[in-house]
Amino acid sequence: MVSTGVPLDTATMISTALEAILYGFSVLMFIGTIWASTYKLKANRPIALVAILLLILSTAHLVVDIIRLEDGFVKYRDTFPGGPVAFFQDISQPSFVTKNLIYGLQTMLGDGVVIYRCYIVWQSVWVIILPTMLWCGSSVAALIAPYYASQATGGNIYTNQTAQWVTALFALTLSTNLISSGLLAYRIWTIERKVSPIRATNGTMMPIVRVLVDAAIMYSAALFTILICFVCTNNAQYIMLDMITPIISITFYMVLIRLTLGKTTHNNLTMVYSSETYERGRRNSQQYPMKPLQVHISQWTQNDGME
């Protein structure tokens, strides 16, 4: 199947440049995340660890892209049959396999964080069963696709068996993100409705919902664009695929920074538990109505003989 759209050599240059720009933004947001997780959240090690892993993966992906760019345009420009276009089309190149494996690992980590947030808010394993199943499927596809790419003997990514796994990866990842983010935003929105009548302050959790929705839209729009371009065999998917690596990091950082800098984490947790306690108390009072209570008071006086 012949690819369409931007030539591969042009797409590679554009994708690396745009990825580098987004990577710079992600580094700045990483610094803010580390400051927030150590200062605002009293050294929250799991959050700091995830942030560091995302930075390492996005850095490694950019480094591999730069090496791949140098190989195609400088090192093998005159020796590779077909020139730079044929080099970038060859999906069995170690640099291509490595960058896609890194993307798969980062996708697994990013989607896993979204599912974990969903579990923390809902406090129910049943809610995350479907997202977890989708996450497992996308993880398998993310690991198998680079393997089939490394075994390819000719053709491009659209004619190889890798295409089936790549399509499954994008579709499953998009579904996982939409379902998990939707459940997360819906839960916070319902809690906000319950808390509003009993809230003693002017605080609100709607900014959290907005930033979660913004992050989900940013990530989902990129995934949907990649999926459409890949199905249409358009080389623009290479551009979006390189851009989405720092986007995964940015969406994670923006949610955490918004929560910490807004100083809403403690208040929101308090409102969540207060809402749940209020609801349980109301249900119990309806289930066990109070009955009239009689109180008998006895009075005892001691006389010490003093007049």
Essential attributes:
single chain, 307 residues, mainly alpha, elongated
Descriptive account of the structure:
The chain is mainly alpha-helical. The chain is built from nine helices and no strands. It has helices spanning 8-40, 45-75, 83-89, 94-122, 129-150, 162-195, 206-231, 236-261, 265-287. The relative contact order is 0.13.
Task: State the share of residues found in helices, binned by percent.
Answer: over 70%
Poorly predicted runs are 264-282, 284-288, 295-307
The rounded distance between the terminal residues' Cα atoms is 116 Å
Please identify the structural class as seen in this structure.
mainly alpha
Oligomer: single chain
Count of helical regions: 9
Largest sheet data? none
**Percent in strands:** under 5%
Order of helices and strands: HHHHHHHHH
Number of extended strands: 0
Rg: 27 Å
Shape: elongated
Write the layout of secondary structure elements.
Blueprint lengths: L7 H33 L4 H31 L7 H7 L4 H29 L6 H22 L11 H34 L10 H26 L4 H26 L3 H23 L20
Helix pairs in contact: 1-2, 1-8, 2-4, 2-8, 4-5, 4-6, 4-8, 5-6, 6-7, 6-9, 7-8
Entry summary:
75% of the residues lie in helices and 0% in strands.
